[in-house]
Amino acid sequence: MTRVAIATAVFLAALPFAARAQAPAAITTAAGVTGTFDRTSIVLAYYRSPLWNAILADRRFELETVKAAKDDARARELEKYGGESQELAMKQLAGKAPIDNIVAVLRPEFKELSSRMKLTGVVESSAADPKAATVDVTSLLMDWLKASAETRKMAADLNAQKPAAK
């Protein structure tokens, strides 16, 4: 098992317990309510999370290993991955690329939140039905991603710069 697989398994195993412990009881909802999240906050929290750092550390380790073994083809692939990942993150933060990779990582927490809070599901705020009852679960997802106070401040600052919704 690779280092990232072990780190990811340990990290993911602990997350539902941490999120459950931090979730305020006051936001338990009635059926028919959809959980929503702020895209900017979640993209930022994901790319600044311990999970993403573990993925990058594994890729860096592999890059060093293949360079030492003079596997130039694999080294080029890994270097390309780094650049493409950074470009994708910037596009996602700007709202110009889908966040499917992040949603895939968050899917277990969506399921857990939906069950615990009796939500019909969890969606990006902009995708929610404007007529439906919603509850913002952004902070709970940021807890799950172990967002630091600095990350939360950055997200708040970015959101403050967004034009007001019409």
What number of domains?
1
Helix percent reads 55-70%
- Total helix count? 7
Looking at the chains present, what oligomeric state does this protein adopt?
single chain
SSE order, one letter for each helix or strand: HEHHHHEEHH
Radius of gyration: 18 Å
Choose one word for the global shape. Answer: elongated
Sheet bearing the most strands, described?
3 strands, parallel
In what order do the strands lie side by side in the largest sheet? 2-1-3
The computed structural class is mainly alpha
Q: For the residues shown, what is the average pLDDT?
A: 83
Give the amount of beta strand, in percent.
5-15%
Can you walk me through this structure?
With 166 residues, the chain is mainly alpha-helical. The protein has one domain. Helices cover 65% and strands 9% of the residues. The protein has seven helices and three strands. It has a three-stranded parallel sheet with strand order 2-1-3. The radius of gyration is 18 Å and the shape is elongated. The N terminus is likely disordered.
